[in-house]
């Protein structure tokens, strides 16, 4: 076994590649999150809606998306979906960073299903009398949701949502299969160019672990700062 | 779509077997089942260590669980794939690499499931067992664990579902499981990526959705028998 060479990670071309990968991964995390959260909220509201078709749609979405591995979905979004788009859109897509777009969409769509379940369980944990009281005060269903139920559900929902964000972060590594230049992909590149797997993987492991611990820390801080109130 | 299935179903199910190594869906299932079975004893031991009264048993396992759960499985797979050969000097093949990575990864998650099952029991159970004169380990074995494991049965099925999903990562190290076979078929057919990956998705869906129904059924059954660990939701009528 060769010795560990920290110099390689501190500066130079390999350092730049790995750091670029880290930045790319963080961007996927960011954009993926902002697709997943609103979509998850919409799906959760669908699942709780009084209308049957909307409920069926929400349930179907969650069950289907959660049952298929992220990797298979990534391949589907990358290889399958662009073929089905109209010609003009397809060309525009291939002009841009197509791997990154597909990866972010797949990540967002996948995480949204999990987030929807967390949001739904948060909303369901609010006693149903709250809704009845709000409705009897004359608020519409959507208004009651927005002004009464969701703010109460928020505290319950945030900790599990943060841990879903952690899963999203770990999921970004899978984007390497479609050749998106995120951290895992860069580590593979560095490994094959320099034949130093240990350094590259050490860097990437520490980076994943570091961000994961930060996210866990945020979850703990939130729970400590705003503990769940029991009614 | 039917045409594709007609032409490639056997390849999809077993890979090149019997002319070559077993692959496809069969390999995915074998990996998932073996992964779960092998990680079970490890997870149980780690779970017990996580709740142990001794700090020197608790701390290393806690660190292990945090590290593994903070890293993507892909990272664990890569470590196993590039690292095991350089440490042991033996080139491990893809199947064993994937299996080892899965076992390590699942052990951490199972440890948490076991721990949650134990912590979910009323405190009095342990106190009663101890006051009857059972030793800690005997109380654990005959009183706590049977109840805890029964309560964590639904989570165990869920873990099995995620293990099935995780085997798809074998694709990255070139293991001929079902996702890998699908990409192979995709490059053979070339013109129908949406259909090929649609079939792949459908296959996973049937498997995992079916299993998640099993988990739900177990949960309902436990609740009906009054064995469930869930506190009934306090929803006013």
UniProtKB/TrEMBL annotation, chain A:
SUPFAM superfamilies in the cross-refs: MetI-like
Bilayer-crossing regions: 28-48, 60-78, 200-222
Domain of life of the organism encoding this protein: Bacteria
Listed GO CC annotations: ATP-binding cassette (ABC) transporter complex
Positions of the ABC transmembrane type-1 domain: 22-219
CDD domains attached to this UniProt entry: TM_PBP2 (cd06261)
Keywords (A to Z) from UniProt: Cell membrane, Membrane, Transmembrane, Transmembrane helix, Transport
GO biological process terms, semicolon-separated: amino acid transport
Localization per Swiss-Prot or TrEMBL: Cell inner membrane; Cell membrane
Pfam families recorded: BPD_transp_1
GO molecular function term, any single one: transmembrane transporter activity
The keyword Cell membrane appears for this protein: yes
Membrane topology designation: Multi-pass membrane protein
Family in the record: Belongs to the binding-protein-dependent transport system permease family. HisMQ subfamily.
PANTHER family attached to this UniProt entry: ABC TRANSPORTER PERMEASE, MEMBRANE COMPONENT OF AMINO ACID ABC TRANSPORTER
Record NCBIfam families: HEQRo_perm_3TM
Record protein name field: Amino acid ABC transporter permease
TrEMBL record, chain B:
GO annotation, cellular component aspect: ATP-binding cassette (ABC) transporter complex
Keyword line: Amino-acid transport, Cell membrane, Membrane, Transmembrane, Transmembrane helix, Transport
Coiled coil stretches, renumbered: none
Primary location class: membrane
Membrane topology: Multi-pass membrane protein
Gene Ontology BP term (one): amino acid transport
Highest taxon above the source species: Bacteria
Annotated Pfam families: BPD_transp_1
SUPFAM superfamilies registered for this protein in UniProt: MetI-like
Cell location: Cell inner membrane; Cell membrane
Domain ABC transmembrane type-1: 25-215
Any one GO molecular function term: transmembrane transporter activity
Cited InterPro entries: AA_ABC_transptr_permease_3TM, ArtM/GltK/GlnP/TcyL/YhdX-like, MetI-like, MetI-like_sf
Keyword tRNA processing: no
Function: Part of the ABC transporter complex GltIJKL involved in glutamate and aspartate uptake. Probably responsible for the translocation of the substrate across the membrane.
Family per record: Belongs to the binding-protein-dependent transport system permease family. HisMQ subfamily.
Quaternary data: The complex is composed of two ATP-binding proteins (GltL), two transmembrane proteins (GltJ and GltK) and a solute-binding protein (GltI).
Record's protein name: Glutamate/aspartate import permease protein GltK
Species this protein is from: Diaphorobacter ruginosibacter
């Amino acid at each position: 076994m060769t010795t560990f060479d920290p110099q390689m990670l501190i500066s130079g071309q390999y350092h730049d590649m790995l750091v670029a990968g880290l930045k790319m991964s963080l961007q996927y995390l960011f954009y993926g999150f902002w697709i997943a959260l609103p979509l998850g909220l919409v799906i959760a509201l669908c699942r709780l809606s009084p209308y049957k078709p909307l409920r069926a749609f929400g349930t179907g979405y969650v069950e289907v998306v959660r049952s298929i591995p992220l990797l298979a979905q990534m391949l589907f979004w990358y290889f399958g979906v662009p073929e089905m788009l109209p010609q003009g859109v397809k060309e525009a897509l291939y002009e841009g960073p197509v791997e990154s777009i597909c990866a972010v969409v797949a990540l967002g769509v996948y995480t949204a299903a999990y987030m929807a379940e967390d949001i739904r369980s948060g909303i369901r944990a609010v006693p149903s009398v709250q809704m009845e009281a709000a409705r009897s005060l004359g608020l519409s269903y959507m208004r009651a949701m927005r002004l009464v139920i969701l703010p109460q559900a928020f505290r319950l929902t945030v900790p599990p949502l943060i841990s879903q964000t952690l899963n999203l972060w770990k999921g970004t590594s899978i984007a390497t299969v479609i050749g998106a230049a995120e951290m895992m992909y860069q580590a593979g590149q560095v490994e094959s160019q320099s034949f130093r797997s240990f350094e590259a993987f050490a860097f990437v492991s520490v980076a994943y672990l570091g961000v994961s611990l930060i996210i866990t820390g945020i979850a703990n801080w939130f729970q400590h700062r705003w503990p769940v109130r029991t009614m | 779509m039917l045409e594709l299935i007609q032409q490639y179903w056997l390849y999809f199910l077993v890979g090149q077997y019997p002319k070559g190594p077993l692959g496809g869906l069969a390999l995915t299932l074998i990996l998932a089942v073996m992964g779960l079975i092998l990680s079970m004893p490890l997870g149980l031991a780690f779970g017990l260590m996580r709740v142990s009264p001794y700090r020197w048993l608790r701390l290393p396992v806690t660190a292990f669980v945090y590290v593994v759960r903070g890293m993507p499985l892909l990272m664990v797979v890569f470590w196993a794939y590039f690292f095991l050969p350089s440490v042991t000097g033996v080139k491990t093949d893809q199947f064993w690499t994937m299996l080892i990575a899965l076992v390590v990864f699942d052990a951490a998650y199972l440890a948490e499931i076991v721990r949650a099952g134990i912590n979910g029991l009323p405190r009095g159970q342990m106190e009663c067992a101890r006051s009857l004169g059972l030793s800690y380990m005997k109380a654990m074995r005959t009183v706590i664990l049977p109840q805890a494991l029964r309560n964590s049965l639904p989570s165990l099925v869920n873990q099995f579902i995620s293990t099935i999903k995780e085997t798809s990562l074998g694709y990255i190290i070139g293991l001929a499981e079902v996702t890998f076979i699908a990409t192979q078929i995709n490059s053979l057919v070339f013109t129908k990526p949406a259909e090929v990956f649609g079939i792949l998705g459908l296959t996973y869906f049937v498997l995992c959705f079916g299993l998640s129904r099993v988990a739900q059924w177990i949960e309902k059954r436990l609740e009906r028998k009054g064995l469930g660990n869930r506190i009934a939701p306090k929803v006013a009528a």
